[in-house]
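Annotators were shown the component list below and the corresponding predicted structure, then asked to write short factual statements about the assembly.
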Amino acid sequence: MNQADIAWMLVSTALVLLMTPALAFFYGGLVRSKNSLNTMMMSFVSLGVVGVLWALLGYSLAFAPGGAFIGGLDHALLRGVNLEAKGTIPHVLFMCFQGTFAIITAALISGAIVERMRFSAYLVFISLWTLCVYSPICHWVWASDGWLFTWGALDFAGGTVVHVNAGVAAFVAAIVLGPRKDYARQAFLPHNVPFALLGAGLLWFGWFGFNAGSALGATPAAALAFATTMLAPAAALVVWTLLDLMRNGKITAVGAATGIVVGLVAITPAAGHISPISAILLGGIAAIPSYYGLVFRARTRLDDSLDVVAAHGVGGTVGALLTGVFSEKAWSGVADGLLFGNPGQLGIQAVAVGATLLYSGVVTFGLLKLVGVLVPLRAEATDEGLGMDVTQHGEEAYMDGEGAILVLHEREAVVSPALASAAAGGRS
Amino acid sequence: MNQADIAWMLVSTALVLLMTPALAFFYGGLVRSKNSLNTMMMSFVSLGVVGVLWALLGYSLAFAPGGAFIGGLDHALLRGVNLEAKGTIPHVLFMCFQGTFAIITAALISGAIVERMRFSAYLVFISLWTLCVYSPICHWVWASDGWLFTWGALDFAGGTVVHVNAGVAAFVAAIVLGPRKDYARQAFLPHNVPFALLGAGLLWFGWFGFNAGSALGATPAAALAFATTMLAPAAALVVWTLLDLMRNGKITAVGAATGIVVGLVAITPAAGHISPISAILLGGIAAIPSYYGLVFRARTRLDDSLDVVAAHGVGGTVGALLTGVFSEKAWSGVADGLLFGNPGQLGIQAVAVGATLLYSGVVTFGLLKLVGVLVPLRAEATDEGLGMDVTQHGEEAYMDGEGAILVLHEREAVVSPALASAAAGGRS
Amino acid sequence: MNQADIAWMLVSTALVLLMTPALAFFYGGLVRSKNSLNTMMMSFVSLGVVGVLWALLGYSLAFAPGGAFIGGLDHALLRGVNLEAKGTIPHVLFMCFQGTFAIITAALISGAIVERMRFSAYLVFISLWTLCVYSPICHWVWASDGWLFTWGALDFAGGTVVHVNAGVAAFVAAIVLGPRKDYARQAFLPHNVPFALLGAGLLWFGWFGFNAGSALGATPAAALAFATTMLAPAAALVVWTLLDLMRNGKITAVGAATGIVVGLVAITPAAGHISPISAILLGGIAAIPSYYGLVFRARTRLDDSLDVVAAHGVGGTVGALLTGVFSEKAWSGVADGLLFGNPGQLGIQAVAVGATLLYSGVVTFGLLKLVGVLVPLRAEATDEGLGMDVTQHGEEAYMDGEGAILVLHEREAVVSPALASAAAGGRS
Amino acid sequence: MKLVVAIFRSERLSAVLEELYRADVQGLSISRVQGHGGEREQVETYRGTTVKMELSEKSRLEICVSNHFVDPTVKAILKAARTGAVGDGKIFVLPVEKIYRIRTGEEDQAAVTPVGVPSRS
Amino acid sequence: MKLVVAIFRSERLSAVLEELYRADVQGLSISRVQGHGGEREQVETYRGTTVKMELSEKSRLEICVSNHFVDPTVKAILKAARTGAVGDGKIFVLPVEKIYRIRTGEEDQAAVTPVGVPSRS
Amino acid sequence: MKLVVAIFRSERLSAVLEELYRADVQGLSISRVQGHGGEREQVETYRGTTVKMELSEKSRLEICVSNHFVDPTVKAILKAARTGAVGDGKIFVLPVEKIYRIRTGEEDQAAVTPVGVPSRS
Ligand SMILES: Nc1ncnc2c1ncn2[C@@H]1O[C@H](COP(=O)(O)OP(=O)(O)O)[C@@H](O)[C@H]1O
Ligand SMILES: Nc1ncnc2c1ncn2[C@@H]1O[C@H](COP(=O)(O)OP(=O)(O)O)[C@@H](O)[C@H]1O
Ligand SMILES: Nc1ncnc2c1ncn2[C@@H]1O[C@H](COP(=O)(O)OP(=O)(O)O)[C@@H](O)[C@H]1O
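Structure shown to annotators:
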């Protein structure tokens, strides 16, 4: 084991874990205030539910020795996940690092179905999805016996496993759930853009763990992944602001936050495979399809509420393909891409994306239909109108002043007598 | 010295320092908007006051060679705290790391007395408390000549030193201060639940430094502490949401934030001593007493406003005891617990908790009474009504629009003439 | 190369990058709500524009071999910036670390001109400023052939390069732009003080990367810089609160946030050069001139809106000079200061500050005048009145409720028919 | 002249504004209020404290109109704001003695006639 | 019918609502206003700028009632909102010409009688 | 007695308050409303959705005065709130039947006369 690698991987794991609260703010700021807690909770519960399930089963399905398509049960209930080395770091740390990826991937999907999905249905869905979709695809790409891994698909930090995967699941979920009740008749505006910016800032910060941590050690490869993770979003941000300027004459803050995230998504599969200068190009190029994807989506009936498809699906796909273009063995020691004389890599990348699209799309659809049999997927329309915070969580995000509030103690004398009798129905 | 250890301890110290601003948001979001700055400031000033006092005196009392009950003055004014090794890291870095613990412990107490304690009294109190309560208990448990240390009490990262200690001090403080003026007649609702979630997210992030940093190096032990710090709160969060669901039919966001914190508190003493799978159990189990403690507290006259007792006191106690149950020498190399054939450890843990309860309880009481002689502990009732932000700090947390505001320059011509004369009393 | 150094520098670079979003919140919380996005965006775009420009050209001008006053073009377009060692870390990582400094320095200036500068003019300005002002001064102080470096000026982490430099640029910018339209006739109050506290907390956290990262490795020197970066702001915070208490009888939260930042600014040049106990003194002393500078500024016609001059200019200058006073070879191995028998160092420090003031002041003035020829520097007065968020970015930071909003699809049938006809001008 | 004050569900606001526009009502002011009536009450729980929110968010419109405009205005609101469930809200019509347009100092009728639109009243 | 408008300290809001409930007043709307009167003023300081906040937060109630209900309503408010210190606020009673219940279109008296409660007016 | 309700640009609020102070008007309540009139509209864009904000922030003053005070009050507002551009707002004067001062229970005239200031009305 290598202590410097341990140090860096401890930090990286913490950084990736922080990305889920960051996502809660990125998403939570973009919804209406009456649904803000509900949206944030969709990320936060993933920390619990997916975190625990990953340890109990998901990790084993993804990384225990198994077949080409799924891992085995050797590590179920964390059996054999101990302080011995896995690579240069303790096995248990590797498990944690991978767990943070599972957590955020599930949370990413929520962006497509916020403001209408019943919370209990969501909980059941992400539990099943982690085990049935995330773990297998993770196995394909990153386990040494996974079929895409053995085939040579490049995915440094999860362009297909995390982003294409979450993007297509989001697409399917948005279709199955259907649009919000006033979709396209009313504009849904972000209730707190600073929260979205905070989320974007923290996501970028955490993404250094995501990408540079995927080198699994404090190595020059990590430094390369770090540099590309700094430069690609910077370039995407610049291009995004220019597109905004051309289209509306104004550079928007929501746009800036989105541009950063798209740049981060796009560089994810490529992070340790391409040169820093290619990262600037990749980030800049990747901004364009996501930008127009998002503009186009807004005119369709597809209520992918927070544009997970355009940001993660499109961004991840473009990034995965461009990895096959810009890869440079001289930098990564792994493989060259199209531009460096190896056009075949682009084909492999396309297959990896295609397989992910197909598998994730189909299984996500099936799982949602299954969950829908157990629990209705959508909240009732009146609850949607009143807001998911109050109806699903019995809470409001913001309160000012000292409202007229009645303290109810269950089956006890109530503190505020007059209103209490009202509460008890004894109105006259 | 070991550079990898230095790298990790630099990061850990920064992470723990961040926990105090994080706490400011966790607490600040849960109070009413008119008291939000006051609440946040109670954490922020600890960064200054306790930070400086720790360097000047507290560190020495805690870690300089002394007796079984308190350290000496060898390191007062940072004498001898230099770049030479203390363990495998520079002494000065060890001092900083420990300082961040002192800072947050003092800040934790504030949750019990927010919305009513006079700010100046609070400042004097936490200064004295750090020196008279925190430093000695820290010495008992972590200094090589401390009586609990030599006796073999296990407290990996501060379950007793930090959480039981702060919890009991909070209990005493809530009693001495008395309840807020409308307590139990009016519901005090959180003004900004997203802030509480932000605080919880950042606390979790920082807690990796707190617990895994307590290994004092980038070692497998740190990896173990990291893993348990990721899994226990995840499990606590899951159990908490289930309890919420059973009790109210709704999973609350305030509950989720609280569940995370309780899981973190409970794993603190155990972090490097138990296996990851035990951490899941420990986190899940520890959620239960805190959950019901909190429900029960709300029906009493004890206005422990932000439930420091239920979260930190109960959570810390349960964690410290369960450390004596789940400890596994096979993982930690230190000691086994009840489940692994060493029931005596549980007894030692109980004594450590009991001693902390007793000492911290009594001395906290004495200090508050002493401070009360110098400065009234509570703000006046009208000030409490108007809000502590305006009355204690002369500020408001949020302003919209351009109110009707008068710029006063001291002893100078005033900018806005008409209202100025009003200000000067020359009303007609 | 040293892996532990790589680990720490990866973390440090991420930490410094986080400071720019942190600054967005520190600044954004202090302005009026109608300008909050605009203010935040001034920091966020720097991540893109300066980040990209730094990689393409700025880094080369600062660090490629050149003359005493500016670097060459050897590293333009990242030529030769590869995975080979620069010191003990990969060259590309060194470039990134330095890039994060360039980004935040440009963003710091924005505090002087928020709430009135046209966004496009700002973009052009910071682009030019980075290349024409930041890169050269950076070269002077930190490149091995820079004139201040060879001359022995001490600037551990950027007291002159970053803070004095940004402070004087802010001063010039505030004068060239002129005051906000209602300046001194109306009080401009912070719209969200918690955001300012969040910013201050995250800035402190990031500053550990800024200062301790400037040791360029996980060394005892980094530990020293870390300790001083923890102690100086703590002392500054304490002194600031005491000054507040003496002057107004109240300790303010905006003051606490400011005090922390001032302490951080002041310790920056000294971080690895002085002893921890000197850091407490330095932090405490440095609070005083900034405090009174800020009080004094508020009475002048200089609308340095968020007091960049008092915090960064004055704080940086005081810090740079005190570095010449408190420096201790026994701790740093570099040079002694006035107190330790080397008065000459103070003189060198004064020259470094003076040269920065002069060069940055003059060139900033020239650049602003140049930009003013291309684009008007200020927004129109009515736009300033309506708020920069709506007029410059076409967005609002906060929305509640479901306003009466009309969805416009370009050149398409409009969803909401009645209001649509109004929009189309067909009013009757 | 009259002041029409309407308090209704916020989610109907867009619809009400559209309908008012159709009825040629141009000037109005909106604020948010918390209403207490016979509506469904929400129970919320915060850390062991169960509270009953007796208030629900409503929108409040204030429209000053000349007399013969009162009826179309009220009708428009009644039409667009109704959902049929308890909590739909109320409309009050108050007498007004004088109206001024601040920009011009115009009074009464003239003050509430849209600019550049031939007065129909 | 009358519109009773009351402006008073926010901290008395719960008490006022209780008292109104006792007086059988069911429908009302609340908003928050900033009042200027003879109250104690707050001085605030932000980075060297000292400002005087001449405005203090108040609650504003709007209650539409039939004539014989005016008195009990006013009395209830006077009783519950009073603290005796300057700044307690004011109550205004305005004439109302017409009331509509949006849900049913009912007018006047009928519009302000609680549902399912035998009208006592 | 009358209730003067004024709706105008928020940026003129300080000026209006000053002018009212000069006119010896002491008591008032302020709230924020969103107005719709003939004003310049803002176009905003959020991720591909372009929206037109038809509402603009205004301040709303409510001042209860005795009859002979109506004129100075209205004049003060007209003077201070005017900018001359569309969107300056409106003033309404409503009749009031009764005023109470909550602190003392005083009624009508007495209720709106500043404390400790010899009544001039
Ligand atoms: N008498 C009243 N005065 C002022 N506002 C009222 C009055 N009655 C009802 N409201 C407002 O109307 C809303 C709906 O009233 P409610 O009586 O529940 O509905 P409905 O008219 O459908 O029976 C309330 O929330 C409140 O805001
Ligand atoms: N003439 C008025 N018109 C409207 N609101 C008023 C008027 N006078 C007072 N108020 C409101 O009542 C509040 C308290 O008024 P004030 O005159 O200070 O109290 P008191 O009635 O105890 O003398 C003010 O903050 C303001 O909101
Ligand atoms: N009839 C009305 N009733 C209530 N408020 C109105 C009315 N007309 C205008 N307003 C308010 O006045 C503001 C300015 O009105 P507008 O008609 O645009 O200005 P102007 O009086 O300059 O023509 C609006 O935003 C709205 O708040």
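Statements collected:
1. Residues 344-374 of chain C form the longest helix (31 residues).
2. Chain C has 16 helices and three strands.
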